[in-house]
Amino acid sequence: MSIKTEKIWMDGQLVPWEDAKIHVLSHGLHYGTGYFEGIRCYELANGRSAVFRLQEHMQRLADSGKILGFPLPFSVEQMCQATVDVIRANKLKACYVRPLAFLGLGELGVYAPNNPVNVIIAVWPWGAYLGDDGIKNGIRAKVSSYTRHHVNATMTKSKTSANYVNSVLAKAEVKKAGYDEAIMLDTEGYVSEASGENIFIVRKGVIKTTPLTSILPGITRESIITLARDKGYTVVEERFTRDELYIADEAFFTGTAAELTPIREVDDRQIGAGRRGPVTEDIQNTFFDVIKGKSGEKYAGWLYAV
User: How many Cβ atoms are within 10 Å of 271's Cβ, its own excluded?
Assistant: First the structure.
């Protein structure tokens, strides 16, 4: 898969892909002082295109900048319009959208309050993050030896670039061991999230997901909670342990990239029937109807027209 396209939006302008460059001494490259979002644009059933929950994603991007102390220099509305512009410029009907803000060239020390905040938005075609087969039949996961961030060791509510080194290490560890995704525990030993996804379990008809403690407040996570409750399911946000995950009837990941991906196995233990369960399939089908614009007016506000 190539991520090369014709244009990238950079600091307020559409520039050729080859010209979207930064200096090697940019602060963000050295210290991870950046924050980003992962967003998807879908081709709808009617042939038009829409970005899923674009405003919420851009608000979270702005929130990340506020948390880190170097604010986004563009408004949420400007970022939404820029996203539409870059999708149209690249003539894409469906794509992944990556906004990124980072400290640019200036001082090169840990404290660099006067460095500019540079912003880019790139788009490219991207299929199922954990594989088309995984979407249908589920994936194999393993609990990583790497612990998820403590809330006072870093800012867990900011989608900070530096935070993802933790995810890179965890993902590499389990991939080398033959698994598809890493599950990470928090500093007290409870299930936190995956390397880039939130996690849900289903047991005795109740859906449970990790509360907003050590985890990033996932926008897809919040969407799935809403859809499940609207369908009449009981959803609780409550900490759970690794062994509770092992004996779940069903389990699944949610995220922009992963969408809603079932988990069929954790630490070589089969989850439920070892395939996508009925609750997971029901919510997954509802979610896919929403992102394809098939759910009428009820969730139409989640789709930002391109």
Answer: 25
Phi first, then psi: what are they for 237, rounded to 5°? -100, 105
- What single DSSP character describes residue 77? H
192, 184 contact by CB (below 8 A):
yes
Active site residue 159: yes
Terminal alpha carbon distance of the chain = 24
pTM value is: 0.95
Which tokens in the block code for residue 32?
């991870």
The pLDDT tens digits of the residues spanning 237-256 come to 999 999 999 999 999 999 99
Catalytic residue among 159, 171, 176, 298: 159
C-alpha to C-alpha distance for 255 and 5, rounded to whole angstroms: 24
Tell me: the pLDDT tens digits for 190-204? Answer: 999 999 999 999 999
Q: Are 219 and 60 in contact (CB under 8 A)?
A: yes
CA distance 167 to 149: 10
